[in-house]
Amino acid sequence: MSNPDQPVLTLEGCNRMCGGSSFKWYKDRGPRLNTWLIPVILLLSNVEVSPLDKRRYLMIVHLVGDSTDSLWSLLTKLEAWSRCHSLARQQYPKDRRRARNLGTVLGAIEELVGTHTNPLMVYEAITTKFALSKYQRISGDAILELLVARTAQELSDSRTDERLRTLLATVLYVYQVLSAFLAILGGGNSSPPGGRIGTAMFLTWIVPSILLSNAMGTFTSSRTCFTVLERFFQDATGESDLWEQLQSLNGSNDSTHSTLKRLAAIDTFYDAQSFSGGIYTYRPQKRLKFSTGSNDRHPIRLLLLALSPIIVASFIGSVIIWHTPPL
Fold first, then answer.
1. Alpha carbons 314 and 226: distance in angstroms, whole number
2. Which residues span the membrane (predicted)?
3. Is 72 helix (H, G, I), strand (E, B) or coil?
4. How far is it, in rounded angstroms, from Cα 27 to Cα 32?
5. DSSP helix/strand/coil, 133
6. Which one, 20, 154, 184, 279, has the greatest CB density within 10 A?
7. Distance between CA atoms of 302 and 286, rounded to whole angstroms?
8. Angle in degrees, CA 104, 73, 282, rounded to 5
9. What distances in angstroms separate CA 224 from CA 111, 141, 245, one per listed residue?
10. What distance in Å separates the CA atoms of residue 160 and residue 144, rounded to the nearest whole number?
11. What distance in Å separates the CA atoms of residue 199 and residue 300, rounded to the nearest whole number?
12. Phi, psi of 159 (to 5 degrees)
């Protein structure tokens, strides 16, 4: 028996309350869209896209469809940079400025071939050629230090920074969420916030992904990164073709030599970047090819960290829908 304390749903009652099986829009569809859908789209439009080619916009689809892998890839990129900085500090343990400059150069090398080999191996191959060049005989290591510092400055200036724009979009998203609960902000709502805000809270995992991608930034193009490094290679060695140097590196089966040899030209290499880590939110190989010691973060640890925003967002969204009428 149905009563107010323990209601029993029936098909007749549902048809009477909801209007039968005919499809109808919610009467407050406008406020619903303003509450979560439009702010979410605005957030997605602020993703830092990698300037490779038209495939860069597929990363937004990948972010929505496989959010764990996207955030895991971003964290793996940060770990790669952290290891590059650790390698640089091992080279210059008492000189922070030189370590920072070298770490920036190693990070740029990792941008190009980090999924194939140790960036320090590429740098050491360049310095070996420098030791045999006329510059070493004339001015010693001072010119190499100057070249590294200048290259690090050019690389830093070649990166984008859209954090303020993204922060504005995030503030708007948070404001829209709060306005659904606080009448002083939203002016009252025509329906309970369960169905409107529950879905929005499920999507709050987007926020750390968007903020992280913009905090990391990216190069204006892969060609820009390669051009700066090639200029450094030319100035340090007197040779002209960095691409040939990358292809000719000797090493194990996992090295640059065995991988880049299959790429006929530099343009083919640029095309392959889309599928080998050039897009920060899509890095198929999560295990890095180089290590710096016990301080390295294991990929599983990064995976657990990537899962945390989704777990938290799902929990909050479920609680809201459970305790608030989803209408």
1. 41
2. 166-185, 197-216, 302-322
3. helix
4. 10
5. coil
6. 279
7. 9
8. 100
9. 11, 26, 18
10. 27
11. 29
12. -100, 150
Does residue 197 contact residue 31 with C-beta atoms inside 8 Å? no
Distance (Å, rounded) from C-alpha 211 to C-alpha 173? 13
Residue 29, CB-side half-sphere exposure with 13 Å CA sphere? 4
- For the chain, the structural domain boundaries read 66-160+217-239
pLDDT mean over 228-252: 77
pLDDT per residue over 12-66, tens digit each?
Answer: 777 777 666 555 665 656 666 666 666 677 677 666 665 545 555 677 777 778 8
Neighbours of 217 (CB within 10 A): 16
The phi and psi torsions of 219 (rounded to 5 degrees) equal -75, 150
Q: Is the pTM of this model over 0.90?
A: no
- Poorest-confidence range of 123-127, 148-152, 315-319? 315-319
Ranges of H-type helices in 238-298: 242-248, 256-260, 266-272
| Residues 260 and 39: beta-carbon distance below 8 Å | no
Dist CA 318 CA 49 (whole Å): 31
Q: Where are the alpha helices (DSSP H) in 6-113?
A: 11-18, 29-32, 38-44, 58-65, 67-91, 96-113
Tens-digit pLDDT profile for residues 297-313? 999 999 999 999 889 88
DSSP state of 204: T
Decide: 180 and 35 in contact? Cβ < 8 Å.
yes
Helix or strand run (H / E) with residue 134: helix 134-139
CA distances to 25, 193, 194, 236, 247 from 269, rounded to whole Å, are 50, 50, 49, 23, 11
| Whole-angstrom distance, CA of residue 266 vs CA of residue 257 | 14
Handedness of CA 160, 163, 165, 170 (dihedral sign): positive
